[in-house]
Specification:
By secondary structure, this protein is mainly α. The protein has a domain of about 100 residues. The protein is about 50% helix and about 0% strand. It has nine helices and no strands. The longest helix has 14 residues. The protein starts with a helix and ends in a 10-residue tail after the last helix.
Length: about 170
């Protein structure tokens, strides 16, 4: 999410001019802000009647199960297996990327950014842990340390044990 934010502010709405390394350390947009937001959210989860925590990793690992969890959480009827398969295929990364490139959504926020490159797309790579190929070991260590030091205890079990490759 953090690297996606850098791409968004660098290519879609080009208002940030710094490096990824500088971006993750910026108070206004970096990891401290992300962790603060997550902590604020989890500390106020009691405001909602109920909530479902669903991670991107869960969606990637088992999209069928994730969709069924969301439908059950929303107290919606469970569709046929064929309909579930159709929804999963229609919302696949490949199809979402193609729809964005073709401006098929009708929504301006899902259209390609101001710079006509793949880096300006909202749907860029969709790879769990893709940030590892975009950041230095020092950057990953920095993120790891901030998360370890600042993440609320209620979220710690959902965070990676460590971002740093072992």
């Amino acid at each position: 999410m953090l690297i996606s934010s850098w791409y968004h502010l660098t290519f879609r709405e080009p208002i940030y001019r710094g490096s990824r390394s500088a971006f993750i350390r910026e108070d206004l947009v970096g990891i401290h802000k992300v962790v603060a937001f997550m902590n604020l959210w989890v500390r106020n989860r009691h405001v909602a009647r109920d909530f479902l925590l669903l991670r991107y990793e869960d969606l990637q690992q088992d999209p069928r199960e994730a969709l069924l969890q969301v439908l059950a959480f929303l107290d919606q009827p469970i569709p046929s297996d064929a309909t579930v398969d159709e929804v999963i295929e229609a919302s696949s990364f490949r199809n979402m990327k193609q729809a964005e490139k073709q401006r098929a959504s009708g929504s301006p926020w899902l259209n390609p950014g101001q710079r006509p490159t793949d880096d300006a797309l909202k749907v860029r790579k969709g790879k769990v842990g893709g940030f590892r190929s975009e950041l230095s070991e020092a950057d990953i260590h920095y993120l790891d340390q901030v998360i370890r030091d600042e993440i609320d205890e209620a979220l710690a079990s959902y965070a990676y044990d460590s971002l740093t490759p072992r």
